[in-house]
Amino acid sequence: MKKLLLLLLIVFSVDTDAEAQLTVRVVRDSLFIPWELVYGPDNHIWFTQKNGYICRMQPASGKIDTLYNETNTRIQSEGGMLGMVLHPQFSNTPHVFVAYNYLDASVYKLRVARYEYNSTTNTLQNPQTIIENIGAASFHNGCRLLIIDGYLYITTGDATVTSTSQNLGSLNGKLLRLNLDGSIPADNPIAGNAAWSWGHRNAQGMVYANGKIYQTEHGANTDDEVNVIQKGRNYGWPTVQGYCNTATEISFCNDSAVVEPIEAWTPTLAVCGMDYYDHPMFPQFQKSLLMTTLKDSTLYQLKLNTASDDVSSISKVALIKYRRLRDICISPEGRIYISTSNSASSGTGTRIDRIVEIYDPSYNSIAQTENQQPSIEAYPNPATDMLTIKIKQYVFKGSADYKIVNMNGQVVMQGKLQNSSTAIGVKTLPAGLYKLMVYDGAALQAVTGVAIQ
Questions:
Q1: Are residues 221 and 298 in the same domain?
Q2: How many CB atoms are located within 10 Å of the residue 122 CB?
Q3: Where are the beta strands (DSSP E) in 231-281?
Q4: Same domain, yes or no, for 441 and 342?
Q5: CB-CB neighbours of 133 under 10 Å
Q6: How many other β-carbons are positioned within 10 Å of the β-carbon of residue 205?
Q7: Which helix (H) or strand (E) holds 250?
Q8: Do 310 and 447 sit in the same domain of this protein?
Q9: To the nearest 10°, the Cα dihedral for 248, 212, 283, 391?
Q10: Is residue 89 part of a domain?
C-alpha cells in the first residue's frame, strides 16, 4: 500500500537546462524495442531487441552491427529477448549473458544463455545454456541481469502465478544468484537453492552501486517499487504491496521479515530500467538513480541520501519526450542513453523505437573550478604492477583523493594523492577496464579510463 510521506509533496518537474546545457539527440531510430542497453568497455552500446537480435552500436555515428540472431526467441506479448550483461573482464573473457523466452514443446519458458564475442568476425558464437526451464507467460517475465564479484544475478517475474513468489521451490518471483557456469554458489541463503531474495512480482530494472543492488519492480494496480536488495530476505509479494501498512501486511511483514521498498508509487508509473549517475557532466544528477518509466513516459531522478539507502528527493527530467521509456545506460564520460518501447509488442507493424542520447555539449570532460583546468594522466596504460597518477595545472582546495571503480560500479581501490604525481600498486586488481576518478574533497574533478593487464 502507498506510504504517506511528505516526500510525495516534493516530486516536481525540473528544467535541467538551467543547471547544465542538457541536450537530447536521436542516435538511432527504426528499432524494435531495445530492451537492454549496456555501455561496453569497447565504447559501444550493446543492446538487445525483443525479437532476438543482439546488437552493438557506435554512439557517435549510430552505426549498428548485428552480432547474433537468437532464433529460439519467441515473442509472446511482453515476452521475447530481454536482459543482457557483459563479463566484467570482457577484454580477457569476452562473454555475453542474455535472457530470452522460448518454447519447450508448447510450454513458454525463460532461459539465460552465454555467448562468446569474436572480435575478428564481430559476431557472437558458441551459445551455452546457463539456466533454463524458468516459468514464463505473456506477462511478468522479468528479466534483468547483473554480474557482481563473479556471480550472476537474474530477476525473474511471477509469470502471472502469484503464489510462486513465496514458493522457494520455484525459480519465479525471485532474484536468483548463480556462479557464471550456472551452478549454485555454496554461500547462497539456502543450500542448493538459486534464490538470493524472494517475494518479487516483476522486477525490470537493476543496478549495482554504492555496494548495493537497487531494483525497480512493477506493482499490480498500486505500488510500483524501488527496493534495495538484501541477502535471503522476503519482499512481500503477493501479500504485501508497497509498504507494510495494513493489518494483514503488518502481520505478514513481522512473521516473514519483509523488507519494505525505499520508494513506492500509486498510481503506478510502470517503472523500468535504472542506472546510477555520479558524473560531473550533470552535477544535479550526481549520487542519484535515474529511472525510466513506461506508462508515465518519464525519466525520473531519485536523489539518494548520504547513506545511499533511501530516496531524499524525486524529480522529473522534463526535456525527455519520447513516450514509453524502456532502459538506460551511462557512458564513462557521463553521457546518458535511453531506449524507447513504442513499437507493437507483437513485432508486427512499423518499428518506431529509438535510442537517444542526453549530453552537455559545453562539457569538456574535465571539470573547471575558478578557471582552473585540472588535467589527469595515468600511466602506464595498460598497467601491470604500478600506476602513476599525475595531476597538472590544478590547486586542490580540499583533500586530493582517488578512486578506482570497476565496470560494475564497485570501488576496488581508493586513497590519497600525496602530490602532483603519485604511484600506486595495482598488481592485486583483476585484469580488465576501470574508471579512475579524482576528487577535490567531495567534488569529483576528473575521470579517465584505465586498463589493467
A1: yes
A2: 11
A3: 233-234, 263-265, 271-277
A4: no
A5: 12
A6: 25
A7: helix 247-256
A8: no
A9: 170
A10: yes
Distance CA 356, CA 323 (A): 12
For each of the chain's 453 residues, which pLDDT tens digit applies? 434 333 333 333 444 434 568 999 999 999 999 999 999 999 999 999 999 999 999 999 999 999 999 999 999 999 999 999 999 999 899 999 999 999 999 999 999 999 999 999 999 999 999 999 999 999 999 999 999 999 999 999 999 999 999 999 999 999 999 999 999 999 999 999 999 999 999 999 999 999 999 999 999 999 999 999 999 999 999 999 999 999 999 999 999 999 999 999 999 999 999 999 999 899 999 999 999 999 999 999 999 999 999 999 999 998 889 999 999 999 988 999 999 999 999 988 999 999 999 999 888 654 343 344 456 888 898 888 889 888 765 656 666 788 998 877 788 999 888 777 888 999 999 988 888 888 877 777 778 888 888
Is 95 a residue of the active site?
no
Residue 61 cell numbers, joined: 555515428
Q: How many residues does the chain have?
A: 453
- Domain containing 267 equals 6-359
Helix (H) or strand (E) holding 254: helix 247-256
Catalytic residue among 140, 200, 218, 279: 140
Kind plus residue range of the DSSP H or E element containing 248: helix 247-256
Question: For residue 203, what is the domain's CATH number?
Answer: 2.120.10.30
In single-letter form, the type of residue at position 395 comes to V
Q: How far apart are CA 315 and CA 14, in angstroms?
A: 6
- The number of folded domains in the chain is 2
Intra-chain end-to-end CA distance of the chain, in Å:
50
Residues 63, 43: Cα–Cα separation, whole Å: 13
CB atoms within 10 A of CB 305: 12
d(CA 390, CA 311): 36
* Residue 418 and residue 332 share a domain: no
- Rounded-to-integer distance, Cα 408 and Cα 38, Å: 11
Strand-strand pairing, 12-14 and 311-317: parallel
Nearest to 368 by CA among 443, 434, 433: 443
How many Å apart are CA 197 and CA 188, to the nearest integer? 10
| Cα–Cα dist 47/58, whole Å | 11
- 63 and 164 inside one domain: yes
As separate numbers, helices (DSSP H) first and strands (DSSP E) second, the chain gives 1, 33
